[in-house]
Amino acid sequence: MGVLQNIHCSHASFGYFPTYTIGSFYAAQFFNQAKIENPNLLQEIEDVNNKNLLNWLRKNIHNNGKRLDEDKLCEKIRGEKLNFKYFKQYVIEKYSLIYSL
C-alpha cells in the first residue's frame, strides 16, 4: 500500500531494477530470434498455442543456460552479443500500436 508498491523498495534492494532491464534486453533479442525461426509465432501465441515457443526455449535457453554465460548464450542463439537494438525495436513497435504513433 502507498508509495512503496514494489517489495524491493521496502527493504532497499534497489540493485534489482537494473537486472530487470538487462533481462528485458536479452528477452527482446531472444524473442526476435524465435520469431525469425518461427514466422507464425505471434499468431500461435495469440491462439494460446505456446508449444513451439516452449520447445524453442527449452532447446535454446533452458538446455544451455547453465553451461554458457550470458554473452556466449546470446552469441549461440543470435550470432552476436547483447544488442540494445532489439529492445528498442520492441518498444517502438509496442508503443506505436498503443498510442498510434
What does this structure look like?
The chain is mainly alpha-helical and about 100 residues long. The chain has one domain. It contains 6 helices and no strands. The chain is globular, with a radius of gyration of 16 Å.
Question: How would you summarize what this structure contains?
Answer:
By secondary structure, this protein is an all-alpha fold.
Task: Specify Rg, calculated over alpha carbons.
Answer: 16 Å
Specify the structural class. Answer: mainly alpha
Order of helices and strands: HHHHHH
Q: How many individual helices?
A: 6
Strand content: under 5%
**Largest beta-sheet details:** none
Portion in helices: 55-70%
Mean pLDDT: 88
Overall strand count? 0
Give the end-to-end Cα distance, rounded to a whole number of Å: 34 Å
Low-confidence spans: pLDDT under 50, at least 5 residues?
Answer: none
* Count of discrete domains: 1
Characterize the overall form. globular
